[in-house]
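Support case: user asked for a sample of complex input and structure output to validate their parser. Sending the pair below.
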Amino acid sequence: MTFANYWRTRKQRLNLLGESCPQCGAILFPPRDVCPKCSGPAKTPKPLSGRGTVYSFSTLYSAPQGFTQYAPYVVAVIKLAEGPLVTAQLTDVSPAEVQIGMPVEMVTRKVYEEGEAGLIHYSFKFRPVLQTAAQIA
Amino acid sequence: MRDVSIIGIGQTPVGEHWEKPLRILGAEAVLAALEDAQLERPEILYVGNMLSGQLLRQENIGPLIADHAGLRGLEATKIEAACASGAAALRAAYLAVAGGMVDVAVACGAEKMTDAPSDETTKALVSAADSIYEAQHGLSFVAINALLMRRYMHTYGYAHADFAGFAVNAHRNAAHNPNAMFPRAITAEDFGQAKMIADPICLLDSSGIADGAAAVVLAPTAFARAQGLKAVRILGSAVATDAVALHDRDDPLFLSAVHVSTQRACAQARVGLGDIDFVELHDAFTIMAALSLEAAGFCPRGGGARLAMADEISLQGRIPICTMGGLKARGHPVGATGIYQVVEAVQQLRGEAGANQLHGCRIGMCQNIGGSGAIAVTHILERSD
């Protein structure tokens, strides 16, 4: 990813900021400004909770250039509580524990370092929902 | 609109062509197709290719291949639609001839993937997906298909072993294809023991990295008949698209672009699915074969894998697929694949498919998919008697 693109996407990557459609009410992530459901303009910012469940997942053993040093790692599609699906890595979990339907929450993590300049790419990942001491008790 | 036929086919073997650059592979396929058509010079050349810019740092391959085929000066352009680039080039050639702009067009698909290290090729291939919202999270193209396969197995209750039939069928058919990359049979046991790439997709679910080029020559059917040329008619030609990212689709397990392009191509061809004798479909991964059969309508949703389990996809089955090995075993030089599918369908319809010949076949369908379902190109071909 270029530096410019990294900067441009900071709100959705770090804050999970989506959009909503004023015409049909659709909630969109990633933001795209035109509603794919009704084709109307959809530029209303919509912060998302970061809560969701695992829709599907895969443990990746053969990684693309730039990611080979991290393999194996778990990638997933998450069904967000607000409705949209989003693609991301899972973190803080062993591959054997992951199941479809598992509740997860968004965290900000390093995804990879790029090139000789070593630009560190931070983005959202998802982890199993942490229980508070009160919930466990 | 004019009726269009394929009057010539050419192909190089699919494999690791260390001794040949892309321009030579492409030129060999174009010249072989022109020789088969008994013509020396077309009016236009479309080259389907996905990765030349990324892996070879070479764009502008339309003129490059035209020049190396001895056709300097010819109108020649590259067409890109990820893994569907080959069929998209055929679609462009079809529009040119059907619309009456030219009389003789060549559609070539050419790809050179084995010059680069495999992690670089893996990175390049994922550009078929969403570069910001899929690739930047470390997904490979295989992983995107693995997400589909896992969800499919969960939704319909399949085990990984239930997909073996797709790979076994492809390898069995490739064993008799002299141009196939993997011309040898495999067993369901081999499938179960193959190395994992992106769980649940293993090596034998997946097509390999390959080089190759294929080409077809198109002309008006009336011209072909007047010249006494062997012709296979293009009855239907259609393209449909969907969201590029898996997560942007309403129902990721339904390949809407496949469904719509199949419907459009059948409507143009005035044929129903029951009239189709065989399908060269896009089995880049076993899950793509299952989802393609379902979206096209050959079985109910969730029934694609069952067709393979019941061996209904073999040369003797109800709906033979990948009759010369498919993407899995003939090989998948990505931008060339769509043309290989059509070359093989023409071989079947001319009765030139050797040991894999389907007896009495009259209508074949070719379907080439770009990305994980973002674009689907469908052509329906008919034997000309």
